[in-house]
Amino acid sequence: MTAVISISPERHSVLIGHLLPVGSDLEQAAFLFARCVKSSKHFELEVIESLYLDAEDFEYQATDYLELSDDTRSRIIKRAHDLNASIVEMHSHPGPYPAAFSASDLRGFSETVPNIFWRLKNAPYAAIVVSETGFDALVWSVDARTPHALEYIDLGKKKIKPTNLTLSRVS
Prior knowledge:
By secondary structure, the protein is of the alpha/beta class. Helices cover about 25% and strands about 35% of the residues.
């Protein structure tokens, strides 16, 4: 089953500005809460709310690594539960590199996704990494161990596609 994320162009623009701020070389993060709408062709994660993280939300923040604080992680899961929503994790990789998840990101997913999948009663989970050159994405909807591709992000009149550079490394 294919996956699509729908987000307004305005919210997307604010997200990119937050994730790739001018003059910063630190990784940034945000979380989206989305309602899952299933059809015979695909399922769509319709973004209903955003949470933009700041320095105090991280246990560690650097140019090549982020780690959320336990309080932040709990707050995100609780908010998704309260909204009966799926989580879309977003973070940045600053620099002129092709958009792809790092080995560290993939190790983190192997620990985090099963926990969140269980806590949110198998609600789909998506992760997006953005760089100056584009984005990559992974989606867990069938099980917490096997990600699949995001088909595109729907911005209304425009659809943008991920690089899918990571998928070949995890398939």
